[in-house]
Amino acid sequence: MDVITAIQLADYRRRVAGIYSRIRDLGCNQSSWREWRSRRDELFRTHPQSPIPEARRSSFAGLAYFHYDPYYRVEAEVEPLDGPSLQMTHSGDGSTEFLPLGRVLLSGLGIEETLTLFWLNSYGGGLFLPFSDATSGVAISGAATYGGGRYLLDTAKGADLGSINGKLMLDFNFAYHPSCVHNDQWSCPLAPMSNRLTIDVGSGECLDRHG
Questions:
Q1: Is residue 125 left, alpha or beta, with left meaning phi > 0 and alpha meaning psi from -120 to 50?
Q2: CA dist list (Å): 72 to 101, 111, 195, 197
Q3: 3-class DSSP state for residue 207?
Q4: Residue 130's pLDDT is what?
Q5: Alpha carbons 167 and 198: distance in angstroms, whole number
């Protein structure tokens, strides 16, 4: 990586972190979700480190999403989880080592399923919460999501909705696709089987314009 690319990438991550800082200040709601969408679209359209290929940026019309639904916003309890580190498979070459850190309870969604919260074992660390669901690779209500899953949290990259009274703020309306969906030059961690939900999560970013 050359120095110009490194500086651009640092700036991109700084801007992403700034977007999420603003969301935490505003709280997770429809208004902040619209701002999140708008600022992400602008970043994807204009930044030199955008995952949108350069040749397509001038015609980029914005990312596709399901309709906003406050039902998918939960303050989730996390139970400690002991387990060995694992190598999370990528969409392309390589893998990344993560440590299972906790079991996220989704009772706030009216289901008994859980997600595993991971910790990035690389320098600096960070919380990471990928997931897949019944929309992954399958059109539900007119839209599908990437078969390899979506991300809710990636604090090493600044994607962090925060916590409230010790509970993790999860809002699936803010779920987003990894960069490899937009450009196969990226190689991104795929949601493991432990984080496969049986329900369809019809909120957040999708592959076809929907809301």
A1: left
A2: 23, 12, 16, 14
A3: coil
A4: 98
A5: 23
**Tokens linked to 193:** 């089987």
- Which pair of tokens denotes residue 179? 């960069």
How many whole angstroms separate alpha carbon 115 and alpha carbon 108?
13
Is 128 in a helix, a strand, or coil? strand
Question: What is the model's pLDDT at position 102?
Answer: 96
Q: Are 182 and 81 in contact (CB under 8 A)?
A: no
Give the Cα separation of 24 and 160 in Å (integer).
8
Coil vs helix vs strand at 29:
coil
Q: Where are the beta strands (DSSP E) in the chain?
A: 64-65, 73-76, 78-80, 86-89, 95-105, 114-120, 127-131, 150-154, 163-164, 167-171, 205-206
Q: What's residue 126's pLDDT?
A: 95
Low-confidence ranges of the chain (pLDDT < 70): 139-142, 209-211
Determine the Cα–Cα distance for residues 148 and 173; give it in Å rounded to an integer. 18
pLDDT of residue 138: 79
Of the candidates 180, 197, 178, 79, the one whose C-alpha atom is nearest the C-alpha of residue 128 is 178
Neighbour count for residue 179 (Cβ, 10 Å): 19
User: What are the φ and ψ backbone dihedral angles of 110, each rounded to 5 degrees?
Assistant: 75, 20
